[in-house]
Structures are given as structure tokens and as C-alpha cells.
Amino acid sequence: MNASLLAALKHRLPDLKLSTEPGDREHFGRDWTRRWTPEPLAIAWPGSVEEVRALVRWAAESGVAIVPSGGRTGLSGGAVAAAGELVVSFDRMKQVIAFNPVDRTLTVQPGITLQAVQDAAREHGLIYPVDFAARGSCQIGGNIATNAGGIRVIRYGNTRQWVAGLKVVTGTGELLDLNRALVKNASGYDLRHLMIGSEGTLGLIVEATLLLTDPPPDSNVMVFAVPAMDALMQVFATCRAQLTVSAFEFFTDRALHHVTRHGAQRPFESDSPFYVITEFDAGSQAQQDAALAVFERCLENGWVTDGVISQSEAQARALWRLREGITESLAPHRPYKNDISVRISAVPAFLHDMQELLAREYPHFDCVWFGHIGDGNLHINVLRPEGMPDAQFISECERVTKLLCEVLEKHGGSISAEHGIGLVKKPYLDTVRSAADIALMRGIRGVLDPAGVFNPGKLFDSTPPA
């Protein structure tokens, strides 16, 4: 059957790049999660919008599911192909199409990396401000499909704020041209925003027009040693009140342990249970003086016990590595990950309840947490105890995740802040969205993808469970 399907596809699209090589199927059939064994039908690399449209029409007619593939840096199983799906990779569609200096927009294909978008913007004296550690490998189509956030959300917002227009292929092969980079467009439903964060379940993004902005002033980076959890938000409030903050991140002593073993340099000789890293505008002497005043005030109040301010770009990069290198340092341990969010005002109370839960339920596990505390987003990484079978480890973590969902509901939070739902968080979607919400989402999905070919099983099942 598979051979017949692929022969029909090659007949329909004789110039389509296609592979059934085991190495390609394994590589392109998974993302950064490693729970599922990749088993895609094949990997397709379309080279044009028309080829994507024809490919989708063939899939709908043939009943073959499609899993869109970008940089596959996702952490929720959204790009996993484990049930004979055709993986559609956008690696061949990675060009900058146009720069508009008046509109200050950059139009790109979906397979371009975030780093390449940032570099292209800088060539024109502007920036694309969405940023995170996987910038060199993640692709802009995937960023849009998951509404990626990152380390500077506190200043610039999520990906959604920087998408001026999209071209999307629907499940019937139609090409939608959404918003056309208009600043004002009161012409009905803005389907562009429906596609952003849809995890490849509503359409395939084939072109994006991105907004650019002015570079920020020169900045500095500070790292603080924080002696108590209660002081974290005190430090945040002080920084936000007296500085123009671009990023405000935190990590625990366990995170520091792992990232320094991976090559990062310790910021202080003494230990602390918590650390904060913040980036702020420092283009003037007054701004630099304000940073010193923040440190002194936090020190006087006992909210920090030590601190360091970057004196060069190289030192700033080294300090950022303490935060950005954590995920990579944990990867060999194949951690179970929670990506959660609450309102900023709810962070202190939530942190207390969360810490109590983790200490009680994971007494013998290495729990590493860190995140974008300035926008209410925390990442919990649970490392498998040595000798514990994978299945037992996942089962135990899923038991605790259900309890964590109860804490999140209490504080009005979400089980997925920026990684998406995918396969990993699908069982917990109903803790964030009501039955009515999910029913409407199913209905929307059915309209845009009537044959159900786009990323089936991700986010939610196409039909309600019996």
C-alpha cells in the first residue's frame, strides 16, 4: 500500500523531492521529545507554494495525513510522525522574498531560521525582536505555528505581535492571503491570528510577512543571587520600576549546577538557591547609574546577596549562557518537561504552591526549574532517577502533572505557555479550555481541513472521546 501511495504521489508531482531512507524518516519524524518512535510514510520537501498546494490536494484525496516539519525544536510532540504520516519539510523554502523599507516588513518563506530572519533585519538597520536559544535551528513557520515567545516577551511580546500577514494552504489546497500586511483592516474575521498558534492543524504556512522595529539602545546584563523565593518578585518589581527591562529570567541552584557542568562559568563563588538575570537599556550614564541603584536597593533590603553587571558584549553573552544553556545541558537526561504560565500578579502565590507540590511528590527526583518569570512563564524539568524504567518515569511524571494542573486551575494558569499542546499536553487541554471552547476548535478545524489531513491527533483528537 505504501509503495502504491508513493508511486501515485510521484506520478502527480514528478519533481517533488521525496525520501523513504530510514535515516531521513527517523530524523524528520520527531522533534525534541523522544517518547515516540518515528514511523513516517516518507519525507517530502516541496520547493514552491504550488507544489505545497498540489501535495495537500493529493493527501486529501488519498487519505494520507500530513505532519508539517520546521526545525523540529518543539518540546510537546507537535512535529512527531509516528503513524505513517507524510512529513512535509520546509527546508527547501527558506528564502527572504522581500524587504519593504516604508512598511518596515520582511517577507519570508516558512523554512528560514529565526537567526537568518534576525540577520536579514540587521542588514537593513532594524531588528526582528522575537528571540530564544534555538534561534539557529528553529524555523519561522514553526515559530508562528506555536506563537513562540522566548526571552524578550516582557518587552516585545510573542510572535503574534510581529506577524503582519500570512499565506496559508488549507486542507483543500486553497491558498489564503491573510491581512496582506495592512495596519488597519476591518473586513471581518482576522484568520491570520487563527493560524498563529494552531500547531499545524489548520493549514500550512507558506509565506509570512514580519514586522521589524528599531534596534534598542545599548544594553547591559545583570545577574543577581537571590536568597529566597519570596524575593524574586521584589527584585522584578524594583527592576521594572527603575529600568527599561528587555528580559527578566530566573533559574534555580539545580539549573546552575547542570549548566556549569556543561561549560558555563559560575557568576559567584558562593551558592544561592535562586538566580535572576535581567537585560536592560544602558545607553546613557543615567541608565547605568539606575542599574547600580537597583542593585544597592535590593542588597539593602536583603532581596539579593550578590550581583554582577556585564562590562562587555563578551561578558553579557557569558552571563546569558547561564540561562540559555540550561535546556541543552539537561537534554542528555531526557527530562520530563512542564511549560506553564500564570498571570504575573499570581506568580508569588503560585510559586509557593508549586514548590510545595514538587517537594512532596518528587522527593527523590532532580527537579530543575527556570523560566521567564517576568511574563509569568516557568519551565519545570524533571530528571529520571538512575535505574528507573522510562515507562515508570513517564507514568509518575504524568501523575504529578495532573496535580500540577489542579494548582494551575486554582491560580488561573495554563499547562502550556509557549511550547504548544501537541501530543504531550493533549490529556490536559480541558484544564485550560472549556468543553465549549474545544468543541468550537474542533468545528473550525473541520472547516479548514475537512479531510482531517493536517497533524491529526495533535492538540486534540478530531472527534470527541466516547
From TrEMBL:
It comes from Tahibacter amnicola. Its cofactor is FAD. Residues 36-215 form the FAD-binding PCMH-type domain. The keyword Oxidoreductase applies. Belongs to the FAD-binding oxidoreductase/transferase type 4 family. SUPFAM superfamilies: FAD-binding/transporter-associated domain-like (SSF56176), FAD-linked oxidases, C-terminal domain (SSF55103). Gene3D superfamilies: 3.30.465.10, 3.30.70.2190, 3.30.70.2740, Uridine Diphospho-n-acetylenolpyruvylglucosamine Reductase, domain 2, Vanillyl-alcohol Oxidase, Chain A, domain 4. The lineage of its organism: Bacteria, Pseudomonadati, Pseudomonadota, Gammaproteobacteria, Lysobacterales. Keywords: FAD, Flavoprotein, Oxidoreductase. PROSITE patterns: FAD_PCMH. This is FAD-binding oxidoreductase.
